């Protein structure tokens, strides 16, 4: 029974990690769209700067209520924070400039 419980926990952790990464990418993408610094964006959301930085770490585990609060303050659908899209920071690819000399 202990092994079964351990497998469930491992699956939950892996799934949580994916959701956490999607949330972080969505939140950072929203910040980039706003053009605000991290500090100003946290102020805009009405959360402490330290809370914003914590949300962007792997240790963050925001509740659904907290995600809804952030979405409400940002004026967006909460699901947008959990969906990865081309506009999110996690999916952006660096631009390749051909005019720069190769190293």
UniProtKB/TrEMBL annotation:
Which PROSITE patterns does this chain map to?
A: HTH_CROC1 (PS50943)
Report the superkingdom from the record. Answer: Bacteria
What are this entry's molecular-function GO terms?
Answer: DNA binding
Whether Transmembrane helix counts among this entry's keywords is no
Record's keyword terms, sorted? Plasmid
What the entry lists under SUPFAM superfamilies is as follows: lambda repressor-like DNA-binding domains (SSF47413)
Q: Cross-referenced Pfam families, in alphabetical order?
A: HTH_3
Record protein name field? Transcriptional regulator
């Amino acid at each position: 029974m202990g092994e079964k419980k351990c497998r469930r926990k491992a699956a939950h952790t892996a799934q949580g990690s994916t959701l956490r990464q999607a949330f972080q990418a969505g939140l950072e993408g929203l910040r980039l769209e706003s053009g605000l610094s991290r500090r100003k964006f946290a102020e805009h959301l009405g959360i402490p700067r330290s809370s914003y930085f914590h949300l962007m770490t792997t240790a963050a585990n925001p509740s659904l209520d907290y995600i809804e609060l952030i979405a409400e303050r940002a004026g967006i659908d909460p699901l947008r924070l959990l969906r990865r899209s081309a506009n999110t920071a996690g999916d952006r690819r660096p631009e390749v400039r051909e005019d720069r000399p190769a190293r």
